[in-house]
Amino acid sequence: MPRYALKVEYHGAPFAGWQRQKDHPSVQGAIESALAKLEPRAHTIAAAGRTDAGVHGLGQVAHCDMDKDWDPDRLAGALNFHLKPAPVSIVACAQVAEDWHARFSALERQYFFRILCRRAPSTHQAGLVWQIGHQLDAAMMQDGANHLIGNHDFTTFRSSICQAESPVKTLDALRIETVDTRWGPEVHFHVRARSFLHNQVRSFVGTLERVGAGAWAPARVGEALSACDRAACGPVCPPQGLYLAAVRYPQDPFAGA
Amino acid sequence: MPRYALKVEYHGAPFAGWQRQKDHPSVQGAIESALAKLEPRAHTIAAAGRTDAGVHGLGQVAHCDMDKDWDPDRLAGALNFHLKPAPVSIVACAQVAEDWHARFSALERQYFFRILCRRAPSTHQAGLVWQIGHQLDAAMMQDGANHLIGNHDFTTFRSSICQAESPVKTLDALRIETVDTRWGPEVHFHVRARSFLHNQVRSFVGTLERVGAGAWAPARVGEALSACDRAACGPVCPPQGLYLAAVRYPQDPFAGA
């Protein structure tokens, strides 16, 4: 069966998360239903990252197996037609080898997080950022974040329901920048790792927000990490500022698309 | 009565436009209703620009007259509380002189327009951009736009229902730039004038899109302008990419806010 890689963008708000669930809308379920309109049978797709309820996709990658040979652009267009009006969009599609796997072939996941710092409610960015009413010191946050980069036991920054076998992961990058926008100052987090623990990015961001607000000294992030104790984590931040931004593979499957 | 200037942000989608209407929701009506929660009586506010249905506010400016002396920050906060859940937000508030007028004191209006160029439907920017499925040549568009800058009879680029006394206006700037975003290439228009005719910006953008797509030579924009004939205009583009970005006054009323 020909296999296709799909680059998927979605708005997290209406979904219980990526993963198909029995009684709740999911991004996976929406795409599988659209696939069933094209080739009527049960479809099961695999994705690079199983995002939580409310988390957005910008460059999520999934793969599907089809009975027929599809022109990749036509397949993307047909899926987008059937996905309407769900806020899920196939932004690229490419045929891949039949042993290529969206999850297991991935070398790195990149997440992106947006905090908007302003008092007045945002009318255009609501649902797309974590809005807080105070300013943040991004340099202090970066000092705190630097304790997290590298190979560590991340038990502190892992949800109690995380199913990963080991809490030891390598965090390749956690870069924080301030961005002035037309609607106010934002703080952006760029996070890269081969793989992540459940709630790891939101545990990082919620903890580093405490540093940026002046409530935590940067060194306390290192102490929290060393404690290997979930209770040492700062508050886990809400999901709506989080985006699965990109997935890296040995070769970009969409390079020619 | 103390007078307050309000900087107002709003999402245009749910509104029939800025101006109060009998049977349709309006931004003006939403703010006047919130004011009536604070000082129960009829309120009438004035704004720098009367935006159309679907057009967004980023830096709209209005003024209101109050019976009581309000701390400006408290007034903004109380209005935002009562405006919920309407997507209207008071992002700044300042007391001004009693003869200061949001409309008549304004020296210049600045509009901002976003086109998103990509085929797949946008899940995060829907309603915030005019999305088109093809690429645009921004340099050609700027060549076309340059014919419009300056003092001209803009009859061609004016809605047939425009109520302005004269079609002669001075366009101070029409700058076009391309911006690469995480969700695809955008073309941005930055437009400045003391005042605008009805549908003038959307007539410009719709016409210049034809230039960017290669359907019109840039010189045809100058010919259309010289014709002083509404029929010579290109198509008027949809409203959801348009933002009233800022209003300039002799002194920035929010400078200290």
Automatic annotation (TrEMBL), chains A, B:
Residue ranges constituting the Pseudouridine synthase I TruA alpha/beta domain according to the UniProt record: 9-104, 145-250
Pfam families in alphabetical order: PseudoU_synth_1 (PF01416)
Enzyme Commission (EC) number: 5.4.99.12
Leader sequence segment: none
InterPro entries: PsdUridine_synth_cat_dom_sf, PsdUridine_synth_TruA, PsdUridine_synth_TruA_a/b_dom, PsdUridine_synth_TruA_C, TruA/RsuA/RluB/E/F_N
Keyword flag Ligase: no
GO biological process, one term: tRNA pseudouridine synthesis
Keyword Phosphoprotein assigned: no
GO molecular function: RNA binding; tRNA pseudouridine(38-40) synthase activity
Keywords: Isomerase, tRNA processing
Catalytic activity: uridine(38/39/40) in tRNA = pseudouridine(38/39/40) in tRNA
First-level EC class: isomerase
Enzyme active site: 52
Residues that hold substrate according to the record: 111
Family the UniProt entry places it in: Belongs to the tRNA pseudouridine synthase TruA family.
PANTHER family documented for this protein: PSEUDOURIDYLATE SYNTHASE, TRNA PSEUDOURIDINE SYNTHASE-LIKE 1
Function, as annotated: Formation of pseudouridine at positions 38, 39 and 40 in the anticodon stem and loop of transfer RNAs.
Complex formation: Homodimer.
Full protein name: tRNA pseudouridine synthase A
Gene that produces this protein: truA
